């Protein structure tokens, strides 16, 4: 009788290990991916801010990185909309108009990238690097005292993270 509880416990332990999705991307892989960005620690923090990352495989990490970048682009778009609506100077308003167009372009590129990621066509995800150019173009079209530097930096770092994740996966999948 004493063996039965031990056998049951071992069986449950083995079953939970087989069923558990804990075979996610290792911290070493995250470090390798993020070492290709401007700020490795920030990249890792961006990815681990999503609780799915701890159990994600590489294809899921691609989708997570694109989700996070899409959210940042959407948040920035909403912020630029508010800045635009509150601007009284015509040239500043025009600068924010430009940013809104650029962020819509980013969102379109992210939708394409997400679809390609769902289809596991990682080598076809080629436009993520353009997101940083678009973010810079937005910021450079605004006055130097514009209060948008922080959200632009967030967009740049999140975009770099997604680009690095997907470049790593593209080189890992034949």
Question: What are the main properties of this structure?
Answer:
174 residues, mainly alpha, 7 helices, 74% helix
Structure described in brief:
It is built from 7 helices and no strands. It has 174 residues and is mainly α. It is elongated.
Describe this entry's structure for a reader.
The protein is mostly helical and 174 residues long. Helix content is 74%, strand content 0%. It has helices at residues 3-19, 27-34, 40-48, 58-86, 90-118, 129-140, 149-172. Helix 4 (58-86) packs antiparallel against helix 5 and helix 5 (90-118) runs antiparallel to helix 6 (129-140). It is elongated, with a radius of gyration of 21 Å. It starts with a helix and ends with a helix.
How are the SSEs placed, and which strands pair?
Layout: H1 3-19, H2 27-34, H3 40-48, H4 58-86, H5 90-118, H6 129-140, H7 149-172
- Please give the share of residues in helix: over 70%
Q: What is the radius of gyration? A: 21 Å
Described by strand count, sense and barrel closure, the largest sheet is:
none
The separation of the N and C termini measures 53 Å
Low-confidence stretches: 6-22
Order of helices and strands: HHHHHHH
Q: How many strands?
A: 0
Discrete helix count:
7
Q: Look at the helices and sheets and give the structural class.
A: mainly alpha
Which outline best applies?
elongated
Q: How much strand content do the residues show?
A: under 5%
Chain-averaged pLDDT = 89
Q: What oligomeric state do these chains adopt?
A: single chain
């Amino acid at each position: 009788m004493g063996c039965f509880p031990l056998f049951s416990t071992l069986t449950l332990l083995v079953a939970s290990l087989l069923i558990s999705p804990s075979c996610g991307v290792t911290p070493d892989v995250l470090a390798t991916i993020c070492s290709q960005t401007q700020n490795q620690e920030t990249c890792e923090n961006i990815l681990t801010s999503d609780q799915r990352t701890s159990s994600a495989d590489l294809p899921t990490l691609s989708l997570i990185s694109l989700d996070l970048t899409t959210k940042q682009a959407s948040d920035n778009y909403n912020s630029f909309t508010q800045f635009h609506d509150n601007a009284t100077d015509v040239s500043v308003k025009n600068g924010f108009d430009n940013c809104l167009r650029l962020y819509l372009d980013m969102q379109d590129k992210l939708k394409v990238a997400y679809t390609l990621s769902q289809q596991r066509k990682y080598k076809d995800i080629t436009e993520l690097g353009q997101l940083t150019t678009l973010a810079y173009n937005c910021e450079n079209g605004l006055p130097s005292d514009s209060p948008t530097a922080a959200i632009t930096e967030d967009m740049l770092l999140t975009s770099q993270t997604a680009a690095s994740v997907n470049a790593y996966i593209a080189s890992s999948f034949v």
